[in-house]
Amino acid sequence: MSSNEVQNPVNEESNEVLEQKYFQSRPETYNGAERDLYLWTQTINDIDVRVKIPKTIKKGKEVKVNLTKQHIKVDIIESNTFKTIIDSDLPWAIRAEDSTWSLVPGEYILISMEKALERWWENVLVDEKKINLKNIQPEKSMEDLGQEEQMKIHQMMYDQRQKAMGLPTSEEQKYQDIMKQAWNVEGSPFKGQPFDPSIVESMRKAE
């Protein structure tokens, strides 16, 4: 082997760290990885796999997903016949009866697998390149958090969804409820008028 062919373990390790850092920055590969055919992410309890598909795959009947205790098989329609794109054992067992899949037309098949045991996986398929678990962030799952912490997280997620849809957050809803009760009381300048949330919102911002 020539000197140019000698691998540098330090560079190899740093590349591995950088690659996983990139995976950690994306929700679909967080604590997982991206491979040629799919992307995967995990928590201590479950794994989500996004299998890449052609834009021509639009309907659920054009896809077959078979999950057993320690095996996964995925077929898609190609030239009017089913073609297998994934057929592999899993490194660890899953609860197949509690695992599901759905289709995002023209983009990917989302396969959600529930792990039989609480543990971090290094790969999804037995012949897949393994990730280094030292480079992931094994945080607590929601079930491990206290009730108050869970409520705060659920409220934060709810508020994010409401904002994304242009709807009031939980705090804004509480303010509107209070103002709605006071809308028609004696002495209110709005008494007798239909309740207008836009007026309430402008008043709230002016405070």
From TrEMBL:
Protein name per UniProt: CS domain-containing protein
Region described as Disordered: 187-207
Pfam families recorded: CS
SUPFAM superfamilies: HSP20-like chaperones
Limits of the CS domain: 33-125
Gene Ontology MF terms: unfolded protein binding
GO CC annotation, single: cytoplasm
InterPro entries reported in the protein's UniProt record: CS_dom, HSP20-like_chaperone, NudC_fam
PANTHER family hit by this protein: NUCLEAR MOVEMENT PROTEIN NUDC, NUDC DOMAIN-CONTAINING PROTEIN 3
PROSITE patterns: CS (PS51203)
Domain of life: Eukaryota
